[in-house]
Design goal:
The complex is a heterodimer of chains A (101) and B (561). Chain A has 101 residues and is an alpha/beta fold. Helices cover 31% and strands 34% of the residues of chain A. Chain A has a 5-stranded mixed sheet with strand order 1-2-3-4-5. In chain A, helix 1 packs parallel to helix 2. In chain B, 40% of the residues lie in helices and 22% in strands. Classes of the chains: A alpha/beta (101), B alpha+beta (561). Chains A and B meet through helix 2 of A and loops of B.
Chain lengths: 101, 561
């Protein structure tokens, strides 16, 4: 099940939902989620509500998304992280690159 | 399409045998005939048929027994076995298949059915053979790739792990899996005697993770050896990794530089779990991860800000990669940072390293070894005890005479570190190479003095307290950023050959100067001299500071005869 997507805000925002383990096994799916999205979104939300685990390859995937979404101009929010996920994002200081909610 | 094959038949009834052979030959197959089970087995070994037709009811060894023995001796090739039988009952048919048969043909033979089954089984046998060939080819490729990877890894290991880790005040554990997964521990001493340490953790596994260690190590050792500052080294490493690593690959790292003489540690942590400074009095100071890992930010955006902490002999610094807190125990529980802090709180400083290792191993216990583990401990020692090695170079003889002037204006004072460049130049002189430490000390102290007291007019008295220390460096940064006018000028005058020589170093600044003689005999409270000059005097280096006092001259004479 891993990755599902949703389009919101009238086609301007792509929500990518991650469920289960966010690791290398969902690499392909995650990439396709934004590369093959039906719309060219200007905002991205990575919904981690269903994710119970995040490792360094997941951080790498987030960086790839950021690259795709315009690098420094990207608007990406990582939402609904649980305590474990949040801890990893904090240690890596990814709040310097993404909005973390 | 009809495939043609070599078929072995075993039939004890002569007329049945003749009939079947004729049928098979008419279909285009080559037929080998056996009259009984024993002969069938002999012929099977001699001829290696592609298909076997066995009469079920023969005197022993009967068809089922022959099938069993054929299956027992078969290698990996698939030879279909079809029983010829008039048996109808399900038990007998099941027994046949269990013995190794693949199908049945009932007597009397129907030519159409025979032909169809033969084709089906020969097709299956061909498919099986193709699969095996492909499997063998894949296995061959795989062995080749593994071998290549093995060679490449050995090169990377040589480059990345050949540093100064044999120092008595540095203890570390770097497990094989951690190494394989791209964990790195590097240590090197700069020409001033500062110990630089870097613990890194690349994303990914295997060669892809480990290969990033090569440029990282080369830059680290190269720059530290030349006297570059920790911040400059990190900046260069980040830029290189950002350029060569694909997006999504990065290196979490903690780097530190210890000045044993000053009792000062500078720390930069990007993405590794917080380290710990364990003070002798029991206080635990976290070395917090404040930066993004190396390789993510572009050169322009990289943040090289370090944290400065004062340390005293006996203090210890503990660093680890996430393999330690993530070590999994019974039921998937993680070892965690909390447990680490508790251990540190309850254990005497000198025993912490071993107690932590022991605790992790016991925690993981039955789950298998703690295979992904990187743990480093550095003990702060008095400068005199620090046995860091300063790399030497091969000498060659030549007579030289030259004069070098190097001046830095305000803008350059902000961003250029002239010391490594000057030292590099001086190292071209044979007689000076073995004196690089002393030379670097002289250049560094004179430069710091010129910049901080001459150009920036900072008061060295501030550095006497811990709070003042931090304030001093903040003020230094502030004034440096706002500097619009000012100059520091190096003049180096050299005359010598392989027997000996003279090097005259003059460092002048655009400041107001100070009364050196008065400062020296303490007849003035002027604090603008800095303790750097006092240090040089204590090292036996003669300084000359002609009035107005904004130029310091040092003369080096040596004789190698």
């Amino acid at each position: 099940m891993g990755i599902t997507t949703d389009v919101a805000a009238g086609g301007n925002e792509l929500v990518i939902k991650v469920a289960g383990r966010f690791d290398f096994s969902v690499h392909q799916e995650f990439r396709q989620a934004y590369e093959r999205a039906p719309v060219r979104a200007q905002r991205y939300v990575v919904d981690m509500g269903g994710a119970d685990y995040l490792d360094s390859s997941a951080l790498g995937m987030l960086l790839l998304l950021r690259d795709h979404a315009g690098g420094d101009d990207a608007d990406i929010t990582i939402a609904n992280s649980n305590a474990d996920v949040r801890r990893i994002l904090t240690i890596s200081n990814f709040d310097q690159l993404f909005s973390i909610e | 399409m009809d495939r043609s094959a070599t078929i072995l038949i075993a039939e004890d009834n002569a007329s049945d045998r003749l009939l079947l052979s004729a049928l098979l030959r008419r279909l285009g197959h080559r037929v080998i005939e056996a009259e009984d089970g024993a002969q069938a087995l002999q012929l099977f070994d001699a001829v290696t048929p592609q298909l076997v037709l066995l009469d079920a009811l023969m005197p022993p060894p009967d068809g089922f027994e022959v099938a069993r023995r054929i299956r027992a001796r078969s290698d990996e090739s698939f030879v279909p076995i079809i029983f010829l039988t008039s048996l109808q009952d399900p038990e007998s048919l099941a027994a046949g298949l269990a013995a190794g048969g693949d199908d049945f043909l009932s007597k009397p033979y129907n030519a159409t059915v025979l032909r169809a089954k033969l084709n089906a089984f020969l097709r299956m046998a061909e498919m099986h053979q193709t699969l095996q060939q492909q499997r063998d080819e894949i296995a061959r490729h795989n062995r080749y790739l593994l071998n290549e990877q093995e060679v490449a890894k050995r090169v990377v290991d040589k480059v990345a792990h050949s540093g100064a880790l044999q120092l008595p005040n540095v203890r570390y554990v770097l497990s094989p899996l951690a190494l394989f997964n791209g964990d790195v521990v590097l240590a090197a001493t700069g020409p001033l005697g500062n110990l630089h340490l870097l613990v890194g953790d690349f994303t990914g596994h295997g060669l892809a993770a480990a290969i990033g260690a090569m440029p990282l190590a080369q830059i680290f050792y190269g720059m530290v050896g030349k006297g570059f500052h920790l911040r400059e080294v990190l900046r260069e490493i980040n830029a290189r990794l950002h350029d060569i690593l694909p997006a999504g690959v990065f290196c979490c790292a903690t780097a530190l530089s210890i000045d044993f003489a000053d009792g000062l540690v500078e720390v930069w942590n990007g993405g590794l779990p917080d380290g710990l400074l364990c003070r002798g009095d029991g206080l635990l100071v976290p070395l917090v991860s404040r930066h993004l890992p190396l390789g993510i930010r572009s050169a322009r955006q990289f943040n090289d800000a370090v944290e400065r902490l004062q340390v005293a002999p006996g203090d210890r610094l503990l660093l680890w990669s996430d393999g330690l807190p993530e070590a999994a125990g019974a039921g998937g529980a993680r070892f965690g940072e909390q447990r680490l802090l508790e251990i540190c709180g309850e254990t005497p400083v000198a025993e912490r390293f071993d107690v932590i290792l022991d605790a992790v191993h016991r925690f993981v216990g039955g789950e298998g070894q703690v295979d992904d583990l990187t743990l480093v401990e550095v003990t702060v020692v008095p400068r005199a005890e620090f046995a860091g090695a300063v790399p030497g170079r091969i000498a060659d003889a030549a007579a030289q005479k030259w004069h070098l002037v190097f001046a830095l204006e305000a803008e350059s004072l902000r961003s250029v570190n002239p010391l490594p460049l000057l030292l590099h130049f001086l190292m071209e002189v044979p007689g000076l190479r073995s004196r690089s430490g002393q030379l670097y000390t002289v250049l560094a102290e004179l430069y710091a003095n010129a910049v901080e007291h001459g150009v920036l007019r900072l008061d060295s008295a501030l550095k006497r307290t811990a709070v003042g220390f931090a304030r001093y460096y903040r003020e230094r940064e502030r004034r440096l950023q706002r500097l619009t006018e000012g100059q520091v000028r190096f003049e180096l005058d050299y005359h010598g050959d392989h027997n000996g020589g003279v090097l005259c170093i003059k460092v002048a600044d655009s400041g107001a100067g100070f009364d050196f003689e008065a400062w020296r005999d303490g007849s003035t409270p002027d604090h603008y001299a800095g303790r750097g000059l006092a240090l040089l005097e204590r090292l036996g280096i003669r300084l000359s500071v002609p009035l107005p006092g904004n130029c310091v001259i040092v003369e080096f004479r040596w004789n190698d005869v």
